Each structure stands twice: as structure tokens, then as C-alpha cells.
Amino acid sequence: MSKYIAGIDGGTMGVRCVIVDFKGNEVSSAYFETPTTYPKPGWVEQNAEDFMDLALKSTEAAISKADIKGEDIACVSFTNMRSTFVPVDKEGNFLHPIFIWQDLRGVEMFPWMEERMAKYDMDWADLYKITGFPKGAVWPSSKVYWYKKHFPELYEKTHKMVTPQALLIKALGADGWYDDDTDAGWWQICDADTFEYVPKLAEVFEVDIEKYPKNYKPTTKVGEVTPEVAAKTGLKVGTPLIMGSGDQQCGAIGVGNVESGLASICLGTAGLVIGYSEVPVRHPTAACHVLGHPGTGNWTMEGHASAAASAFRWVKNTFSDSEIQEALSKHVDVYEILTAEAADSPPGAKGAIFMPWLAGEACPYYDDNARAAFIGMTLAHTKADLYRAAMEGICFEMKQMLEALKAANFKEFKLLRVTGGAARSDLWNQIQADIYGSPVETVKVSEATALGACMLGAVGVGIYKDIHEAAANMVQVDKRFEPIPENVEIYKEVFKIFELGFNALRKETFPAIVKFQNK
């Protein structure tokens, strides 16, 4: 009788297989980095063959590490980096390297997209009303148009443009290319209410709908492990392959974000705020994008920050040589030392404020000119104040996104579940609770994205009847942080100053800095 579920997470930097039991406890995992190339400034690529090979390699390693038998695994499900695709021909040959979400070459097509929309009396606001996606360089839509413009012969040969999840599922034995409907919105030619392609938009942008993926609902069985795959991985022949969803949607359900009144926040390399909605939703100024919620057929609205915890990594790399050396000598995580120093600074960091836009500002203003800054320093400030100000500034950006969700008529969030590297710090979690003014909880399984995929797998093979029952059984809360009333009041004042600073700099100062930097 089976005991476990395997979840394969194809992320930006590598592929991981995580095996959990039916209560969500991690039993084993294995991770391998995916080689990434940068052929030109703004271009980011990976080879599809490497990606698929690592799906097999990580699965075999995770099974071997725990000495698990193939028949002990009930199913395999999947999650993947989003807004990413690769074109493939009818014979299964890849026609171009994977276009990674970080790739920016599609920006070239924005003027053309505007011209095409104008011919149909449309603009970006009209496009958002249909697709739930604002203008953005991350989405694959503009990169598809770039590919068609620069490689017309390859575009004609293209049978399907598929996502990393389709690559993972194919690698594990599926007989074709399978994608999920909850992630279809990234193409920016889908109706965000139904997740169906819109023929009119394909006409507007002169693309062929049949070249886009065929989509299935998460929890759908889409294949079985073949004898060849079983020999390479240790899985049992015939093990069901279950459709998953995108990494952040899986991460959301992996922390139990399956009901109204709860939002999830990821403070990782990038930052995400995700709200769950039981009705179709749009933001009044197109500040947040809309996707499907896996397992329920409902909707999520997301805001994203381009830097988030990676901004704190920049602070560490720039200011913390002595702390890095101390961590090496003591064999501890340098971030433990930095956050311990930050704890010596009071809430509000004595008025020092960090603006975290090291990679521009995304949600809710989408200001590519925004730049990072420390403001408010005096001779009285210490390095501890700067560390705390950096932690607070990153959380202020996340609060802006929470406010954006509220502007889209979400109910007041009574609880926030947090993941990402920052969630390992009790101080950072308390700062989050105080800045957001809501209780914050962490969960025991750090790989929430893979856990979310496993939850979808559990529903797909009938271990649990639906995603709510799966969450009740597989999501285990670790710690809870209640907002401290006096800190909440301090942060309300500092947050106002944070926004005043941004608005004062964005009109003239940020553009002037960018103009100078681009000389």
C-alpha cells in the first residue's frame, strides 16, 4: 500500500523532487541546478533537455536517499517556474532554448502591441479587463511575438509552445504535452474569468491559438510512469502523473491559502502576495494580475516585487564583510548574525528608511525608474539600524501590495501565511505581523511549492476528496506571530513616510538618476 507522494518542482535555478507522506511531512528531497545562459543583455535561457533530465535525476536521488520503494509512491505531481516557455515541433524537437521569465527581450514588441491594439480600438486597460494581466516585461506574451518576428520560419514549424510543467510531465512518461489552465493567463490572450483562449486577441496579435498549449485542470491524471522512466528513477511502472500548477499558486495552497480571509506572502528572491477569491476579480488600476486557483477552480490575485529578500542579500554582500567572516568562523548562517544585530535597533530603525527597489518597482506602480535608497540617516544611526531598516523596507513594499489587493475588494485579511527565506527569521516574521497589522504564521514544510503539488496529487488519486481536505491534513502550522499594538502604531507612521519618500522621488529624481546611469 502506498505511503507517499512525490512532487517535482522545476524552478528558475534548478529542479527539485520532494517526497512527503500523506500528512505533509517531508520524507526526502533532492535538488540539482539547471545551467542557465545569458547570450545577450536581457536574454535568459535554459536548455529543455537539461531541464527534463534533471527531473529524472532528482526523482531517482530523492527515492534512493530515503531508501523508498517505487510502489510506496502513490503518484507524482508537478509545479514549475511560471511565465516561461519553449517552442517544440510535431516531432518533439525543441526549436529554441527555453525563454525564462527573467528574459526581457519582449520589451522590443511593446510599441507593436500598442499599434495592433489601437487598430481594434483597444489599449492596455482594455487588455487587462479581458486577461487580468497589465503591461509587463515578465509575461511570455511579448516574447512569443518577438520569436515570431525574428524567427518566422521556426514559428511556422512550431507545433506547441509549452511551459516547464509540460516538460516535467513529458519527462516522467506522458505521451504528449500537458499544461494546466490555472497558469494560462500568463500568455495574455486568455479570459481571466474562464481561463479559455480568446480568438479575438489571437487575431489582434497575429498568433495561432493552436500553437498554444492544451490545458487541463490541476488534479487531472495526464499520464503514467513508463518502463523506461521507472528504470531511471525507481518509480513503479504505471504510477499516475497528476497535473499540478505554477510554483506560486502551489506555494499558496502549500501554506493553506484555500479560503477567503487568508493571504499568503512569499519573501524569496522575488516577493509575492497572493489573495484567494471565490468570484472573478480585477484591480481598478490594473495593479495586480489574475490567475486560477488550483484545486478549487476559483481565482487568485497576485502582486509581485522584483527584489524582496534578494534586496537584503544585496545589503549583506555590500555592508557585511565582518559578519560574513564571523559566520564562516562560527559555522553559522550569516543571516542569523545580521538579524540578531537588527534586533538591537528599535521598530522604525530611528527613522532610517530603506527603499528596496534594486530591480525597479513592480506592483502596484510598475515604475521601472525606481531605484533603491536609504533615507533619514543621521550620525546617530548604526549598522544595526540599517539592517533593520532594510528588513522593514522590504515589508513595507509587501504591505503596498496587500493594500492593492484590498483595493480590488478583497475582504480584510485576518491571517497571513508566510514562506521564503525570510520566514526562517522570528524577528522578520514579527516585523511582518507588526507592519501588516495581522497575525502571521509559518508552516513546517519549507518547500511549500512542492508540498502544494503533492496536495494536488493527493486529490488527483483520491487520497483526499478536495483541496480543502488536503490542506486540513497536510498543512502543518509551525509558529504564529501576533502584531504588537504599539509597534503597529509606529509602523503606520513610518509607512506613511515610506510612501511620501517614494512619491517625492518618483517624479523627477528617479528619472534623472536613470538618465545619468544610462549615459
Describe it.
With 519 residues, the chain is α/β, with parallel strands linked by helices. It has 18 helices and 21 strands. The chain has helices at 48-65, 110-119, 124-131, 141-150, 152-157, 164-171, 199-204, 227-233, 247-254, 309-319, 321-330, 334-342, 383-407, 426-436, 448-460, 467-474, 485-506, 509-517; strands spanning 4-10, 14-21, 26-33, 45-46, 73-80, 86-88, 98-99, 160-162, 179-180, 215-216, 221-224, 240-246, 262-267, 271-277, 289-293, 298-305, 353-355, 373-375, 415-419, 440-443, 477-481. It has a 7-stranded mixed sheet. Strand 15 and strand 16 (298-305) form a beta hairpin. The longest helix is centred in the C-terminal third of the chain and has 25 residues, at 383-407. The N and C termini lie far apart (66 Å).
Rounded to the nearest angstrom, the distance between the terminal CA atoms is 66 Å
Strands ordered across the widest β-sheet: 15-16-14-13-19-20-21
Secondary structure class reads: alpha/beta
Q: Specify the number of helices.
A: 18
The average pLDDT value, as a whole number, equals 95
Task: Put the structure in a nutshell.
With 519 residues, the chain is α/β, with parallel strands linked by helices. 38% of the residues lie in helices and 20% in strands. A hairpin with a 4-residue loop joins strand 2 (14-21) and strand 3.
Keywords:
519 residues, alpha/beta, 7-stranded mixed β-sheet, 6-stranded mixed β-sheet
Question: How would the blueprint of this fold be written?
Answer:
Layout lengths: L3 E7 L3 E8 L4 E8 L11 E2 L1 H18 L7 E8 L5 E3 L9 E2 L10 H10 L4 H8 L9 H10 L1 H6 L2 E3 L1 H8 L7 E2 L18 H6 L10 E2 L4 E4 L2 H7 L6 E7 H8 L7 E6 L3 E7 L11 E5 L4 E8 L3 H11 L1 H10 L3 H9 L10 E3 L17 E3 L7 H25 L7 E5 L6 H11 L3 E4 L4 H13 L6 H8 L2 E5 L3 H22 L2 H9 L2
Parallel strand pairs: 1-5, 5-12, 9-10, 13-19, 19-20
Antiparallel strand pairs: 1-2, 2-3, 4-7, 6-8, 11-12, 13-14, 14-16, 15-16, 17-18, 20-21
